Give the backbone structure.
Amino acid sequence: MSNINWRGVDLNLLIAFSALMETRSVTKAAAKLSIGQSAMSHNLSRLRALIDDPLFERHGHQMIATDKATELAPVVEQILQLVTNEILQPDDFSPQEYHGIFRIGLTDYAELLFAPTLFDAIRHAAPHCQLSFCNIDRNNYQQAVEAQKIDLVIGSMTDLPREFDAQYLYTEDHVCLFDADATGLASPIDLARYIHTPQALVTPDGKLASKVDSQLQQQGFQRHVAVGSGNFMTIRHLLTGRNLVCVVSTLMAKLDVFHDNLSQCRPPVDIPDFDINMLWLKRNTNHPRLEWLRQCVHDAITARVNDLRRLG
């Protein structure tokens, strides 16, 4: 390998060789490639030096291929076909024939809401694939994408680094969730009752405070957070039969994974909505497999959100 003159290797030379083999004429080969005759003659000279063979010898008005050129012809055609089909014009992705792994990064919120839906949609279209749902959050997703080779990330990430691209999926808002019998609360909850009821908090980072506390402090109020957990399902279990109220995303409150009778209403505090986005590495944007996966995930999540919202 070290003895090869790689600086002299040029894909255009192989294209010129193919044209010469087809036309057996410098003039016709030049016309076929839309270049000047002198440029084609220069390419032939470079080919001869690179291969160390005359390759074509003039006999009258025709160029006769040498034995070396005849031997090289099928190899050159194979190389050009490989470059054309596999690099310059890759085949469309066929989910029905795919036997690989799709890796999707999901926050706890996104996994609880969408994992079953994504499994059904992707496996229906790509029945031989494997799915890996990778738990991520807004603090670790960048490292996780690279380390775990994650194809897509779904969550409420904002202020994306420049190596990521994103697609908006939907906007989420909030409700108060509570056991009416255990708390004595009824919808709607006023601010006074809300503040004096012990609070449960879904806290991915372990902090027993959120933007709600900041807004209450600006108004001169303070709530009491009695318990926090990074797992929504834990909080949901705690709410049943206990004097606790929790602000959760509206779609999470509508999940049917629990057979309870919790009540919900609009919070008495103005809590900003948040966007849910789909993220991926920009360098993979045009890969056919990822293009298909993004469309499949987008359609599945959109349908799931619409179904949940129709529950009222």
Q: What stands out?
A: The two ends are 69 Å apart (CA to CA). DSSP finds twelve helices and twelve strands in the chain. The chain has a mean pLDDT of 90. The domain at 6-88 is CATH 1.10.10.10 (Arc Repressor Mutant, subunit A).
